[in-house]
Write a structure and sequence with these properties.
This protein has 187 residues and is an alpha/beta fold. The chain has 6 helices and 6 strands. It has a domain of 117 residues: Isochorismatase-like (Rossmann fold, 3-Layer(aba) Sandwich), CATH 3.40.50.850. It has a 6-stranded parallel sheet.
C-alpha cells in the first residue's frame, strides 16, 4: 500500500499542512462486514471515475458484498452503475446519503459494519456521506479512482479531508486486495 500521504492531494499540500495533519496517519483498510454504497450524482459529473466505480460494483457483487444505491429525487442512475433489481435504493433528499433517508435502516437489515463508498460528487454527497457514516459508527473506505467531482481541486481536497478525518482512502487495487472486502459470514 502506498504511503498515507501519497495520493491525489500530494501536490496541493504543503509540508507544514502535512505536519499539522500527521496525527491522523494510520493503517488503512476495509472494515468487517462491508456494504458498498453507490452515490449517484444529481447532475452529470464528467471524468473517468465511472469505469472504476463500475468495476468496484462488479467485484462487490461477485464477492457477495451487499450493494446499496443512494439516489437524489428525480435523478436517474448512471447506466454503468445502475442498481440490480434486488439491490436497495435509498432516496437521498440532501447531500448526505444518511440524512432524512432510510439508509441506516437498510444497512442495519444488511448487518453492515463498515462502508465502502463510490460515486459523485466527492466534495458533496461522497464527503457528507463519509462524515455521517463515521458518525453512525461505520468504518468508511473509498478508492480515489471510484469517486469524481466537477472541479478537480475540490475532488483532491475532499479526499484529503476524508482521509484525515472520516475514512480510509486508497487506490482501487489496494481496496480490492483487502481480505475484508467480501461478504460477511452468515450468522
Amino acid at each position: 500500500m502506498r504511503e498515507f500521504e501519497d495520493y491525489s492531494w500530494r501536490g496541493l499540500i504543503t509540508p507544514e499542512i502535512e505536519h499539522i495533519y500527521s496525527p491522523y496517519l494510520r493503517d488503512r483498510g476495509v472494515g468487517e462486514a462491508p456494504t458498498l454504497l453507490v452515490i449517484h450524482p444529481a447532475t452529470p459529473v464528467a471524468g473517468d471515475w465511472t469505469a472504476a466505480a463500475a468495476r468496484l460494483i462488479a467485484e462487490a457483487r461477485e464477492r457477495g458484498v451487499p450493494v446499496v444505491h443512494s439516489l437524489p429525487p428525480g435523478a436517474r442512475p448512471i447506466a454503468a452503475l445502475a442498481p440490480r433489481e434486488a439491490e436497495p435504493v435509498s432516496p437521498r433528499p440532501c447531500e448526505s446519503a444518511f440524512f432524512s433517508s432510510d439508509l441506516e435502516r437498510v444497512l442495519t437489515r444488511l448487518d453492515a459494519q463498515s462502508l465502502v463508498i463510490c460515486g459523485a460528487p466527492t466534495s458533496g454527497a461522497v464527503r457528507a456521506s463519509s462524515v455521517e457514516g463515521k458518525s453512525f459508527g461505520y468504518r468508511v473506505a473509498l478508492a480515489e479512482e471510484t469517486v469524481g467531482d466537477v472541479v478537480q481541486m475540490l475532488h483532491r481536497l475532499s479526499l484529503f479531508d476524508i482521509a484525515h478525518k472520516y475514512g480510509d482512502v486508497m487506490t482501487a487495487e489496494e481496496l480490492l486486495q483487502q481480505d475484508t472486502f467480501k461478504a460477511a459470514p452468515a450468522r
